[in-house]
Specification:
There is one protein chain. By secondary structure, this protein is of the alpha/beta class. About 30% of the residues lie in helices and about 15% in strands. The protein folds into two domains: about 1-295, SGNH hydrolase (Rossmann fold, 3-Layer(aba) Sandwich); about 320-395, Immunoglobulin-like. The protein has twelve helices and twelve strands.
Length: about 400
């Protein structure tokens, strides 16, 4: 079975070699409130608690176009096809008027599908309780219908974040231990469920080139690192569902933008004050971190991207001038890593769970006693205090 899966996934990537980047996106979303949350508990100036809002702003800054329509529901409800466009936004051009045009005439080139965030207690191919369909079978049905209408449309699985209530003993917000356990689950068993879900879809529909965007795990990994671990939880989320506040949806939009446009978000974008100040100040470093995470998200044991179409990048593309001239070498190495720029020092090293494993204030870091694997290294400019996160591999 494993051999069959490997060769099926190989076929998936061979068949998926199409033109990678796009400049004009028309997107339809089979989603729920972890993509579009309106109205939020705490009012915002516009649609800051929606992913399409941030997608549109980033696209405009990058001189690209973005239009979006979509609907609420969970996967069993999304099977009621054709869909109907029930979303509207202040800042986003609608992609489809379902009262005037059929879906097949809308020229969608991007479709986003997501599962509920509380379905992960059993396998993705197991039927929902008291039902005859599963997350996999529902998604396959939606995929097949979309492909019959828009054969060249790119389909993405949006991996959101899980329900938080089960981790709370005294209600929202969580204490530090509960918060740590929650984020470990996002990048652990919860993420494993989405991997199995994606692999099942690839096995059954290898020619349809379904990709996956690991939004929840990337956000969780970022929030484990300094200085983002200092952002108050109540600035990120408003309840235990957990519905996000603008900062969370901004990060989700940033990840989704880079995954679907297949390029780094524009360095010139000015993050508005509705987003937490730590995120605003470190925008370029966050973009670099997200890009590294997306580039590294491959089918296990291969260099085949789960995210990108065409020929995906294989190395990090640094984003601003300072990052262009600072790097760590050799990488990979047997544990000793050095900086190539004496204007910076290495401050901290983390494992992929976000646990601090070593501190330093030098131009090198010694990970020789750590197990082989991927580690995150925090670098700081001696004068400006700018922080950069680098990914290193210990052989």
């Amino acid at each position: 079975m494993k051999k069959l899966l490997f060769f099926t996934l190989l076929l998936f990537f061979v068949s998926g070699q199409i033109n990678a980047q796009i400049s004009q996106m028309k997107q339809y979303v089979f989603g729920h409130s972890l993509i579009v949350h309106t109205p939020p508990l705490y009012p915002t100036p516009s649609d800051e608690t929606t992913v399409p809002h941030w997608m549109a702003l980033l696209a405009t800054e990058a001189s690209k176009t973005y239009a979006c329509s979509g609907q609420y529901g969970f996967l069993p409800q999304h099977r009621q096809l054709p869909p109907f466009a029930q979303w509207g936004f202040d800042t986003v051009t609608p992609a489809w008027d379902d009262n005037q045009y059929d879906f097949d005439s809308a020229n969608f080139n991007n479709v986003l599908i997501t599962a509920a965030n509380f379905a992960q207690w059993q396998g993705p191919a197991v039927n929902y309780y008291n039902d005859t369909v599963s997350p996999v079978s529902c998604t396959r049905e939606i995929n097949d219908w979309v492909k019959s209408q828009q054969p060249d449309c790119r389909i993405y699985i949006y991996e959101n974040w899980p329900d938080m209530a089960g981790y709370l003993s005294s209600g929202f917000p969580p204490n530090q231990t509960e918060w740590n356990n929650y984020n470990n689950y996002i990048d652990g068993a919860f993420h494993d469920w989405w991997i199995e879900y994606h692999d099942s879809l690839l096995l059954q529909r290898p020619n349809d080139s379904i990709r996956m965007i690991p939004v929840g795990p990337i956000i969780a990994n970022l929030l484990r690192l300094s200085p983002y671990d200092q952002i108050p939880i109540t600035t990120l989320y408003e309840d235990d569902a957990p519905h996000g506040r603008p900062t969370i949806y901004f990060l989700a939009g940033l990840i989704t933008y880079m995954a679907t446009y297949q390029e780094m978000a524009p360095a010139t974008y000015q993050v508005p004050t509705t987003v937490d100040s730590i995120v605003r100040v470190n925008y370029n470093s966050i973009v670099n971190f997200i890009w590294n995470e997306l580039v590294a998200f491959n089918i296990a044991g291969t260099n085949n991207s789960r995210v990108f179409f065409g020929n995906p990048p294989t190395t990090s593309i640094q984003h601003n001038v300072s990052q262009d001239v600072v790097n760590i070498f050799p990488n990979p190495s047997n544990g000793f890593f050095y900086l190539n720029n004496n204007q910076y020092t290495i401050q901290k090293g983390y494992n992929t769970l976000g646990e601090l494993i070593i501190e330093s204030q030098d131009n090198f870091i010694d990970l020789s006693e750590q197990k082989p694997g991927i580690y995150l290294v925090e670098i700081e400019h001696k004068v400006t205090g700018e922080k950069i996160i680098k990914r290193v591999i210990k052989n």
